Amino acid sequence: MSTLIMSQCWPLVMPPTAKAVLISLADNANDHGYCWPSLATISERTCFSERAVQNAIRWLESSGVLVADRSNGRHTTYVIYPGRFQPVIDSKPPQQVHPRSRCTPAGDSETPAAGAGDPRRRCVQPPQEVPSNRQEPSLNRQEPNDVSDLANSAAKISSSSSVDVQPIGDAIQTRAVQIAVLLRQRGASVQAGQPQLLDWASQGVTDAQLLTALEAAQAQRHERADPSPINAGFLNAIVQSQRRKQQAQPAGGRFKSRTQQREETAQLMFAKTRQHGGFDGKTIDHE
Q1: Beta pairing, strands 34-35 & 66-69
Q2: For residue 18, which of 113, 93, 107 has the smallest C-alpha distance?
C-alpha cells in the first residue's frame, strides 16, 4: 500500500462507486502508482459487482486519474495519477442499487402535502441488477496482445503536460512506458510497471544502450538455441554489465594494451634522452 498515492486520492470528489474502486486500487498501488489487482479482487473489496467495477474503471479512465494497460493477455496493469483528475460532466458510473422487494404500506398516515396524492397507489420499482452465475468475460481478452494500447498510454501521458499538479515520479513513469514500447516492438517480454524498467528510467539509460543490450541478449539466445523470451531480468544483467564497462572506460578513448603502454613509455624516454644530449649507450628496459 502506498500512503503517498492514498493521501492524494482521498480529497478527490467523484461518484461513490468510482471513489471506492479508486481507493481500492490505491490501497494496492506502490509509490509510483502501479498496481494490477483482478476484477474479482476489486469486486470483493468494494462489495460491488464486476460489471459495476468495470463501469467505474472506465469512468476513472475518462477523468484522467487512471490509465489501464491491457496489452498483457493475462492481467491489466493500472497506473494512478491523482494530479490529473478532471471530473467528467454528465457521465456517472451506475451506482450499486439495493431494490425494494415490496412496497412500504402507507397505512392510515396523513399525506405530507396536499398535492402529493395517495402513496398507496404508487410504487416505483427501481432498476434492478439481476444476479447471475455466469462470470463476466475478462477485459484483458478483448484486447489484442500487442503494443498498441501501451503506445496509446504513452501518448496519453505525454499529452497531459498542461496539468499544473504532477504526481511524484511522473517523469520516471513516462520514461518506463516509453522503454516498454521500444522493447516490446522488438520482441522483448517486458511490462512498464516492472522494477527493472523503473530503474532504467531513473538511471537515465538511453535507447541506444537498451537496443545494444537487446541485440546482445538475442545473440545469446540464438547461440544457445534457447526459445525462451527475453524478459526484464535477463536484459537487466546485460544492461548493467555494459554500463559498468562504460563507467570504467577512460574518458580519452579505448583501453590500451600492455604492449601499447610499453611502446608509449619507450618513446617518451627516447624523447627525454634526446633533450639531454642523446643516448648514452645504455639500454632502457621498462616493465
Answers
A1: unpaired
A2: 93
170 vs 234: CA distance, rounded Å: 26
Nearest-10 Cα torsion for 203, 209, 214, 217: -90
Closest CA to 79 of 65, 90, 92: 65
- Residue 67 near residue 79, CB atoms below 8 Å: yes
Going by C-alpha positions, the residue among 159, 201, 160 that lies closest to residue 179 is 201
Determine how β-strand 34-35 pairs with β-strand 77-80: antiparallel
Q: Is 83 in contact with 8 (CB distance < 8 Å)? A: yes
Grid cell, residue 287, equals 616493465
The model's confidence at residue 187, banded by pLDDT at 50, 70 and 90, is confident
Q: What is the pTM of this model?
A: 0.36
Pull the grid cell for residue 144.
Answer: 489484442
d(CA 65, CA 32): 13
More confident position, 168 or 170: 170
CA-based Rg of the chain, rounded to a whole angstrom?
Answer: 32
Q: If you search the block for the grid coordinates 486500487, which residue do you land on?
A: 25
Percent over 70 (pLDDT), the chain:
62
Q: Which residues contact 228 (CB under 8 A, 6 or more apart)?
A: 221
5-14 pLDDT, tens digit per residue, is 888 899 999 9
Look at the block and give the residue holding cell 398507496.
120
**Cell numbers given for 169:** 515520479
What are the φ/ψ torsions at residue 78 (nearest 5 degrees)?
Answer: -105, 140
Please report the sign of the dihedral spanned by the C-alpha atoms of residue 239, residue 240, residue 245, residue 247.
positive
Give the lowest-confidence range in 31-35, 270-274, 282-286: 282-286
